[in-house]
Design a protein that fits this description.
The protein is mainly β and 209 residues long. Helix content is 7%, strand content 40%. A 7-stranded mixed sheet has the order 1-2-4-6-8-10-12, with no helix packed on it. Strands 3-5-7-9-11 form a 5-stranded parallel sheet, with no helix packed on it. The termini are far apart. The relative contact order is 0.14. The model is unreliable at 1-16 (pLDDT under 50).
Length: 209
């Protein structure tokens, strides 16, 4: 079986809710998912996302990644959500060695594409802290160097509640005969009018409070 990621265990210590390891290296086009309920923090010597690779954090309200060296190649993605359609409160800090075309997304998800038992989600809070001896990440200008696309939007829905209700009653009518069930009724919620709130995004030096 081919592994799609590598954790180098020069040392690896699980202490409370934190994992200390030498490196997390995700190869090109690889994907690594963190969903262990016992882990809320990674402390690494090196975090490396090679080209077109991704790191996904699942089921976490809060999560912290600290790495002495951070390498983000082109077309890399870091996403994080809490499993209830809300974005994770994510903190990424360390010395940035390389910043390619990178997206960090802690946006809320809609119930249509996320968990249908939950409402539209809120965006998480994203904090990026950088060691000033390395590169300085920025999210203001995608034409400048070291740009990271940062997303912390609240989920919304583009559906029309009036049309949805009309469609629902139409389907109920089609299946209203004796022994017949409604035809084509959607599973879970039909419409959730609430919109999730926007999360906060902050980029600042490590030593700044």
């Amino acid at each position: 079986m081919k592994a799609n990621y590598l954790i180098t265990l020069g040392f690896c210590i699980l202490l409370l809710n934190s994992v200390n390891a030498q490196s997390l290296i995700i190869p090109a086009k690889g994907k690594h998912i963190i969903k262990d309920k016992a882990i809320n923090e990674l402390r690494l010597d090196s975090l490396v996302l090679n080209k077109k690779s991704s790191l996904e954090i699942q089921g976490k309200k809060d999560f912290t990644i600290y790495a002495n060296h951070i390498i983000l190649a082109d077309k890399t993605f870091i996403t994080a959500h809490d499993g209830k359609n809300n974005g994770t409160n994510l903190k990424l800090s360390g010395k940035f060695i390389k910043i390619g075309k990178t997206v960090i997304d802690v946006s809320g998800r809609t119930y249509e594409v996320g968990n249908k038992t939950e409402a539209n989600g809120n965006g998480g809070n994203l904090l990026i802290q950088y060691n000033q001896d390395g590169l300085i990440p920025q999210s203001d200008n995608n034409k400048e160097k070291n740009y990271i696309e940062t997303l912390a939007k609240g989920a919304s829905t583009s559906t029309n509640p009036y049309v949805d209700v009309q469609n629902l009653w139409y389907r109920v009518a089609l299946g209203s005969g004796m022994g017949r069930s409604p035809m084509g009724l959607p599973q879970g919620k039909v419409y959730d009018a609430s919109e999730g709130s926007q999360g906060n995004i902050e980029i600042k030096p490590l030593n700044e409070k």
